[in-house]
Amino acid sequence: MYALPITFYFFLKFIAFPLQLTYFYILVFGKPFFITEGSALPRYDLNIIKYMDFEQYIGYIPERLDLSKLLMSIIIGGAIGIEREYRGKAAGFRTIILICVGSTLFTIFSIQIGAPSNSDRIAANIITGIGFLGAGAIFRDVNNLTRGLNTATIIWITAALGMGIGAGHFIIVVLSTAILIIILTGFPLLERMISRKHQVRTYKICFKHNDAIVEMDNSFNKHELSARIAKHIMQEDKIVCHWTVAGSEGSHTRFASTLHAANGVIEFEYN
Predict the structure, then answer these.
(1) How far apart are CA 176 and CA 82, in angstroms?
(2) Within 10 Å of residue 223's Cβ, how many Cβ atoms?
(3) Are residues 187 and 71 located together in one domain of the fold?
(4) What's the pLDDT tens digit per position in 10-69?
(5) Domain at 254, CATH number
(6) 179-186 contacts: CB < 8 A, separation 24 or more?
(7) pLDDT digits 0-9 by tens, 70-111
């Protein structure tokens, strides 16, 4: 409960605040405190050396543009993550933000470390790393159906947006984010409209005898369903058949309602 506030306190006390004091000291006095005035070097050489020493002392000094990129990556990742969190997906609000910020950071570091001749060296490996992350989001459920493809795609495109932010392509990132949010929020309505007209279900039906299987084929045709038997298992006291069936939502509903009273049917399920 108190771990985060305590960590933040020590970060401000021992890291952020001393660095900020050092930075303002240089802005006011024009030199870091560890450079003495008694140096025999000319003034312009001293300016160059003290700046280099200061950057070597604390590392790369981020520019205002780099900080703006990080802020923008948080906003872009949050806009996408809200939709994912609302739908209860595995890659939710925090995960999407971290992916976007991480891609932005890797791109910024790649530009700074590899510039000017090899600035894409680190950024090129983001695609490989995101591929492994996306693959972990894809799985098969208890019904042997593939799940997580949409989540893996969101992870992939979020990393692309983060790379675009890190490279400074802000306009195309904003436009792409707007298009992505429209697809995520508006297209499910279109999918439901298509599903009402045509959907594919997998039926698992258990029979007492073979004659009931022939009657089931006639029932599919009666309800205007296109059926293809995928698996036929003979057991001691029953026959288990798996069908892949295509048709409208209404046809599926009417067919499922008749299975309760169908002759020779022990049990059934579909998905």
Answers:
(1) 16
(2) 20
(3) yes
(4) 444 555 555 555 555 555 555 544 444 554 444 444 454 444 455 555 566 677 888 899
(5) 3.30.70.260
(6) 180/80, 181/79, 181/80, 181/83, 184/80, 184/83, 184/154, 185/83
(7) 999 999 999 999 988 988 887 889 999 999 999 999 998 888
Domain extent at residue 262: 198-270
**Residue 75 to residue 213: CA distance in whole angstroms:** 57
Instruction: Map tokens 């998905």 to a residue.
Output: 271
User: What's the CA gap between 223 and 254, in Å, rounded?
Assistant: 7
Both structure tokens of 142: 């208890």
Q: Phi, psi (5° rounding) for residue 232?
A: -135, 110
How far is it, in rounded angstroms, from Cα 44 to Cα 47? 5
H-helix or E-strand spanning residue 132: helix 124-135
Cα 9 to chain center, whole Å?
32
Alpha helices in the chain (DSSP H): 3-11, 17-29, 43-58, 64-86, 93-114, 124-135, 149-167, 170-197, 211-222, 249-259
User: How many Cβ atoms from other residues are within 10 Å of residue 150's Cβ?
Assistant: 15
- Is residue 60 helix, strand or coil? coil
Residue type present at position 74: I
Assess whether 203 and 223 both reside in one domain.
yes
Choosing from 157, 175, 195, the residue where a domain stops is 195
> Which residues, in sequence order, are CB contacts of 72 under 8 Å at separation 6+?
104, 165, 170, 173
* Neighbour tally for 260: CB within 10 Å: 8
Counting beta carbons within 10 angstroms of the beta carbon of residue 74, is it exposed (0 to 12), middle (13 to 18) or buried (19 or more)? middle
For residues 116 and 181, state if they share a domain.
Answer: yes
How is residue 118 written in tokens? 């090899």
Q: What is the pTM of this model?
A: 0.66
